[in-house]
Amino acid sequence: DLVLICFIAWISNLNFQWLSHLRGRWRSGGWWAEDMDCPLECDCPSAYPTAMYCHNRNLQHVPYVPSHIKYVYLQRNQITGIQDGVFDNATSLIWVVLFHNQLSSDKIGKNVFSKLKNLDRLYLNHNELTRVPPNLPKSITDLRLGHNKISKISGSFEGMTNLTNLQLHANFIEDVGGAFKGLKSLTMLDMRKNKLKKVPENLPARLQQLYLEFNNIEAVPAGFLSMCPKLQFVRLAHNKLTDKGLPANVFNISTLVELDLSHNKLERIPTVSRNLENLYLQANTIKEFSLGSFCSTVDMKTFSMLKMLRLDANQINAKDIPAEAAYCLRRVAFIDV
Ligand SMILES: *[C@@H]1O[C@H](CO)[C@@H](O)[C@H](O)[C@H]1NC(C)=O
Ligand SMILES: *[C@@H]1O[C@H](CO)[C@@H](O)[C@H](O)[C@H]1NC(C)=O
Ligand SMILES: *[C@@H]1O[C@H](CO)[C@@H](O)[C@H](O)[C@H]1NC(C)=O
């Protein structure tokens, strides 16, 4: 009985989070019998023998990761740094999830991740990083670095030929230099909310989605879309684009499906391809409705694939739209002016 009383006293000292955590273990077969090779502060459920759950636990350090673990969840803790060697025995790791911590670049060892030859996903978003951690494994396909304090990225992604998804939104990046050179698998690049003054040049050829909203972009380089023949979604809303900054036909690219140019300083509707489906131009200073921007000739056979056209919060109204627009824009149900 004394043992039981001590046990209850011990249990009642623990906070609710720990209690529910232990109960979880108890239910899954009793913690004595549980995998001994799991750090006390984490859960390693037998139903998922290669996963280790350590999220939401006020942790300040990365616990020991046993070598059979492939997926480690460390998000929403207070981890400020990671020393070299911490993951050295965990070379099977495929996912490392570390978002919503307090990681700072000065406290991350130079080779923390370098031995993880199988690493596929690394989530470091919502931390305090000022640099991309060095020596990242070339095997990574999904790298999330959004919501940090990163300003320079040149050289950070060298040789990452399998990288398909790169998130860098909400950082302090002004210039990308040659950072994206050689990223031949990259399909999605998110650079919203940075300090870019221009659209990055030399974007990877396989890119499909490019998100650049909330930067200071004034101009778009001529032909930037023709170098990315797979680009389907281009979002440039909330920038400083003017007509002067847009070379003729820069958006007249047949692969483009969606173009968001809303909340800029455009006075004219740029020429777009007849294949474009969604065009957002609201909150600019557009003064005229130029049908030639959608259809170079207007007849019964040539028409635009456009379905969504937003022109509200500009300086035009419904009576500025010519009657011929009905032939060219026959798929647009309603033009928002
Ligand atoms: C890694 O494993 C070796 C051998 O099993 C052990 O001696 C060493 O202490 C482990 N390293 C860490 C950082 O746990
Ligand atoms: C990229 O992926 C392929 C196929 O999964 C793999 O064979 C190759 O080793 C990977 N490259 C790198 C640099 O990890
Ligand atoms: C847009 O590009 C197509 C195909 O390259 C071309 O035929 C068309 O004339 C261009 N539109 C304008 C308005 O220049």
UniProtKB/TrEMBL annotation:
SMART domains: LRR_SD22, LRR_TYP, LRRNT. InterPro entries: Leu-rich_rpt (IPR001611), Leu-rich_rpt_typical-subtyp (IPR003591), LRR_dom_sf (IPR032675), LRRNT (IPR000372), SLRP (IPR050333). It comes from the Eukaryota. Keywords: Disulfide bond, Extracellular matrix, Glycoprotein, Leucine-rich repeat, Proteoglycan, Repeat, Secreted, Signal. Residues 37-71 form the LRRNT domain. Belongs to the small leucine-rich proteoglycan (SLRP) family. SLRP class II subfamily. PANTHER family: AGAP008170-PA, FIBROMODULIN. This is Fibromodulin. It comes from Sphaeramia orbicularis (orbiculate cardinalfish).
